[in-house]
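Hi R.,

Here are the chain sequences for the assembly we discussed:
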Amino acid sequence: MRQSQLFTKARREAPADEVSKNAQLLVRAGYVHKEMAGVYSYLPLGLRTLNKIVQIIREEMNAIGGQEMVMTALQDKDLWSRTDRWDDDKVDNWFKTSFKSGGETGLGITHEEPLTRIMTEHISSYRDLPVYAYQFQNKFRNELRAKSGIMRGKEFLMKDLYSFSRDEAEHDAFFARAREAYLKVFQRLGIGDQTYVTFASGGIFSEFSEEFQTISEAGEDTIYVDEKKRVAVNKEVCTDEALTKLGLQRDDLVEKKAIEVGNIFNLGTRFSEPLGLSYTDETGAKKPVVMGSYGIGPTRVMGTIVEVLADEKGLVWPEAVAPFVVHLVSLGKGGDEISKTSDALYADLVKAGVEVLYDDRDLRAGEKFAESDLLGIPMRIVVGKEAVETGMFEVVNRATGEVVKKSHDEIF
Amino acid sequence: MRQSQLFTKARREAPADEVSKNAQLLVRAGYVHKEMAGVYSYLPLGLRTLNKIVQIIREEMNAIGGQEMVMTALQDKDLWSRTDRWDDDKVDNWFKTSFKSGGETGLGITHEEPLTRIMTEHISSYRDLPVYAYQFQNKFRNELRAKSGIMRGKEFLMKDLYSFSRDEAEHDAFFARAREAYLKVFQRLGIGDQTYVTFASGGIFSEFSEEFQTISEAGEDTIYVDEKKRVAVNKEVCTDEALTKLGLQRDDLVEKKAIEVGNIFNLGTRFSEPLGLSYTDETGAKKPVVMGSYGIGPTRVMGTIVEVLADEKGLVWPEAVAPFVVHLVSLGKGGDEISKTSDALYADLVKAGVEVLYDDRDLRAGEKFAESDLLGIPMRIVVGKEAVETGMFEVVNRATGEVVKKSHDEIF
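And here is the predicted structure of the full complex:
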């Protein structure tokens, strides 16, 4: 894409009302727009990155048998009353509103209830199990404070997968596969090395849930990391008793701030029992379905990548989630030899299927480089006088700053 | 995909609470689930079809220079107050709610206001124009009645594109391109022949807006169609005066019921003036930006395709939007020769990149065929005894009912 056509403009100054690094940089670079506190729109570059994160998660969810669907934001009060999660004194972050046709409704904070009800129409026999269904869908949470940029929004994208299994054994086997899939997702997203399976409070049906925590000073959680075993324990459950159960030694643990980028829960029959989701087993006996939930917030992950990888010059994207792979920066002016060389290289890159943002604008070199650093595209190719004279292009690695000279053929 | 793995099950009976044909069939076939009146979740087959509709629209919007982004459902009351569209006596279908942190908010019914505000940060000079930005995003409209299935939801997907132009001439040129792009979209979606550009009431800035109306008895609109000129006039504006202006003769018009599947509006400076979206022209003069809006509801389009093309046996999808292109129906039972032949053909189809739903379940042939008709996948390939014995497969065209025999090689 030609940058002269891109409608967003980068800004020199961080917005005064943003305190988090991720929002400051993403707003400055024109990736997102702040509508209100905790409410962000995704502009073209931001949406491209978000979609790449989504696609990586989708591929890994499909690989473990997930079936994609999409539920609604508007929620049925009666349904949530049956699981006792409607009242504000039980769940304190609902957005509630009402229908002109009568009756209250709320905006989905999560989707155990509606999906469990849907499954009552499709699951009746052991032959119908297991089922794994997931969605990418906007959640709404009426947060009192919003100071973490896109990492804790009042409206944010969530991938939520729910598993429906015959029994605990079948559940546990999938739970283990989901854990591996999650680790693969974070590896592919470029934050695998900083991300730890972390034991946290579990709820009714298991002693621990498992969080995926990415080490970052911007994190709201405190965790204790065993770097050798590559696991961690959330401060909230890090008692001597818990450590004994988990086979960990307090002396091996290091305290870190971390961002929760995913979590997996054993829900047991917490939802299937009150909502009547049961199946008939091989012997004809009726049993409640055993459930699990598996969340990753793509928008939070995007913010986390910024917090972890950005530097003082701006964003730094791993290639897998960068809005473009190459930033082609021309130092030419309309129609000169440099512009012609740039145009030709741009055409070749597009033809080769490379995702390239082409800075064809008539601006000073320093301004272009600063903006290029801010945007964080992994590889910058500079077309200046030298390229025209020698045929060698300057290729800059955004993450390392390494500069090499490459000929046209070496680029491809 | 193997149908034994698909979690949805088709139903024999239409749900008692649905009056519209589209919802009756889509619920029966397991494409959608009704959460509440006018609120539908999209199950795996439904989401596949919806995503194909979305992708066709996306390609045509990109082809006319659209830049994709995505805005939020939560809306800023102050912003909408500035254009006088916040009060319920001005706009009567808001869902309103409030922040725990204080203040009211509403769920986006449309997005002129937030996008105009975003553009004030990116447009300042004539060099920044024109800009065309669009999104696929869920709208919320607090409809009093919801009886048209997925065609009029309280929460529904919308593609809304907004144009930002220097002047009326530039606007008009794009408006004409958008009209052509829309006609192409409906052609690709398989309802082109039934869809007419229809003149409707225009608002402040132009005498007429243009709707895209698809002829259907399920339509809520009445239009007068000139079939030779392939244009129509909405009843609401079909006066003698209007007909004269449009160069149409009343005698050439036929009254029809129709579904509004798209619309394009000249917004003039209705939003740019109150929200301060202006630019400096070549002479240094400050001018308000001229805007247009261009909507298509992918979910409504999906319902319309059902209304127009479905028959007494069930859904009928055009290939471009079908969840799968081939429905491979095996009449075998676990492990017999028919199953083996089916498995082999399935493997070959998958390898060839054909989107195939493989009915590998152990059910009676009649049940399988009835369900196959209900699902509406364009091409059914039946593997029975004959296929094993002669190598010829029965290939059924869902839309026409035409049956032909094809060898393995003829299928590919």
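The longest helix of chain A spans residues 168-188. The two ends of chain A are 18 Å apart (CA to CA).

Let me know if anything looks off.

Best,
T.
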